[in-house]
Design goal:
- By secondary structure, the chain is an alpha/beta fold.
- It is built from eleven helices and 14 strands.
- A seven-stranded mixed beta sheet has the order 2-10-9-8-5-3-4, with helices on both faces. It has a three-stranded antiparallel beta sheet with strand order 11-12-14. A two-stranded parallel sheet has the order 1-13.
- Helix 4 crosses helix 5.
- The N terminus is likely disordered.
């Protein structure tokens, strides 16, 4: 993959050249999986029918979903003590499904508010039960992950809910919070970016469109023991037990999303697994963070990171220049150089470089080179 200063993004679109996509999601996908999907959309496994056209009850898709689950279990080390589900509704539906299933009357759930997505989850959960906000990161602009002494956990919580990686400001837990209560995690932005000890969790969910595949499918990993304690008399599509009983095919499943996720799980295996993913992701992030932290020969640091240095995300790297005008100028120049999706979230501004598993190291090197040159010319 190369970049050029003489070709506009529109020209690239016409020539078919891919650019560096820093989008927070939907995001960069593995190119070899995309190439395979191109073929399988037209005719998969010699069936004469494309994956988009196959019945979700047919033998071909039965094999696909079984292989996807098996590959997911191998990559993440998921034991038979857990269900692996492929659901619809995005991670946002999980904001309501979790309390609907696991927050009974008379109990309280602890929520750690570290960003926009936990804030949204809290809003949904409050419609369904009693909450204790064990950490309120909004008071500090969501700039860090809480230490143990900052948490006010309940004595007997139904569960403790947190988001492992917060895309907007760019913070990430290095370890899950310590608690004796069942632990529920929204891992949408860093799922399978590093090793995960699934046994520490009661439930993990992740929207696919960042590290796993296209939008439209959500991975749910849920403890069978935890699920046995779920509430009764729920609408079928909102009941994890019914989805588990039907093998993620309670209704017409998101066939293409599950197919693609299965191919991504296999791609991760071919790369060497989660230890390799973690090493690559640390190296990619360091290329950019080193520039953010450097004086760059201009006498002082030019860029300012939004997240506290001890809480920085390896997936979503956020930073600002000295002014909003320079931020806009930077994003424009990056786009001209074949780097798209760098504008920060509208709620915080600045820049955000999302570098999920499939994002190439060359893109991080190109961004770092631009950052250095931009700082020297605009200091």
């Amino acid at each position: 993959m190369t970049t050029t200063t003489t070709t506009t993004p529109t020209d690239r679109d016409r020539t078919g050249e891919r650019i560096f996509n820093f989008s927070a999601g939907p995001a960069t996908l593995p190119e070899e999986v995309l190439r395979q999907a191109q073929s399988d959309i037209f005719n998969i496994a010699g069936t004469g029918i494309g994956i988009l056209e196959h019945s979700h009850r047919g033998s071909l898709f039965t094999r696909i979903i079984e292989e996807a689950e098996a590959a997911c279990r191998r990559v993440a080390g998921i034991s038979d003590d857990y269900h692996v589900l492929f659901l619809q509704g995005g991670a946002t539906l999980q904001f309501a499904m979790v309390p609907m299933n696991f927050l009974p009357a008379g109990k309280v759930a602890d929520y750690l508010d570290t960003g926009s997505w936990t804030s949204k989850a809290i809003k949904e959960a409050r419609l369904l039960g009693s909450l204790n906000i064990a950490f309120d990161g909004g008071k500090r602009g969501y700039d860090h992950i809480p230490a143990a002494h900052e948490l006010s956990l309940s004595r007997d919580a139904a569960y403790v809910y947190f988001c492992s990686n917060n895309t907007i400001v760019g913070t990430e837990y290095s370890e899950p919070p310590a608690t004796d209560a069942p632990l529920v995690c929204d891992a949408s932005s860093d799922i399978l970016s590093r090793p995960i000890d699934v046994a520490r969790y009661a439930l993990v969910f992740a929207g696919a469109q960042k590290n796993l595949g296209p939008a439209g499918c959500t991975l749910v990993i849920v403890s069978k023991d935890f699920l046995r304690g779920a509430r009764d008399q729920l609408p079928s599509m909102l009941d994890y037990r019914q989805h588990a009983a039907q093998g993620s095919r309670l209704n017409t499943a998101p066939v293409f999303g599950i197919y693609f996720m299965g191919e991504v799980f296999k791609w991760i295996e071919r790369q060497g697994g989660l230890e390799v993913m973690a090493r690559r992701n640390r190296e990619k992030a360091r290329i950019i963070y080193d520039v953010i932290d450097s004086a760059l020969g201009v006498g002082t640091t030019f860029y300012r990171g939004m997240a506290r240095s001890d809480s920085r995300s390896m997936m979503n790297l956020t930073f600002r220049t000295p002014s909003d005008d320079l931020d806009e100028k930077f994003v424009t120049q990056a786009r001209q150089l074949g780097m798209e999706g760098l504008k920060g979230h509208r709620s915080v501004g600045g820049m955000r470089a999302s570098i999920y598993n499939a994002f190439p190291r060359a893109g991080c090197e190109a961004l770092a080179a631009l950052m250095k040159d931009f700082a020297k010319k605009n200091s």
